[in-house]
Write a structure and sequence with these properties.
Helix content is about 40%, strand content about 10%. It contains six helices and five strands; from the N terminus they run H-H-E-E-E-E-E-H-H-H-H. The longest helix is centred in the C-terminal third of the chain and has 19 residues. The structure holds zinc ion.
């Protein structure tokens, strides 16, 4: 899997409306000068709004001791939604579809290891495989387009 170019990460960080993003995750924010404050979604924040969002810097920070979560828009989505950094990036970039210039024309190579087939053709498994083969054979026989 291709690395996300640093320029793309910077673009998403700077172009993302962090206040709107945090609010979209159900956090009510109040403007205080150049900052916005609200209840931190990363710990049990009920009385004092500990979350400070600074849209000018594209950063958020929790002021509560014991939490202290801080980061940018991509990290906010990563932690709040429980997804990977890449997934969070893709959610924010271009509404979810990201095209990398550097992958143009190159074949993607899977990095996921292939597992051996859990079925071996003996005993019940052989019967099961026969049933599966029969099922697909019958489906095929009923489909004129496939027979052609
Ligand atoms: Zn917090």
């Amino acid at each position: 899997m291709a690395r996300i170019p640093e320029t793309e990460i910077q673009r998403v960080k700077t172009q993302c409306d962090l206040v709107a993003l945090v609010q979209s995750r159900g956090v009510a924010l109040k403007q205080q000068g150049s900052n916005w404050t609200g209840l931190c979604p990363f710990h049990d924040d009920r009385k004092t709004p500990n979350l400070i969002v600074t849209p000018g810097k594209g950063l958020f920070r929790c002021m509560a001791s014991g939490c202290g979560k801080t980061g940018n828009a991509i990290q906010f989505v990563q932690w709040h939604d429980g997804v990977s950094f890449r997934h969070a990036f893709e959610l924010l970039a271009n509404g979810g579809t990201v095209a990398f210039e550097q992958t143009g024309g190159r074949t993607k190579v899977s990095t996921v290891p292939k597992l051996p087939c859990p079925l071996s053709p003996d005993g019940d498994e052989a019967v099961l495989l026969d049933e599966i083969a029969d099922f697909y054979h019958q489906r095929l026989a009923r489909n004129p387009a496939a027979l052609d």
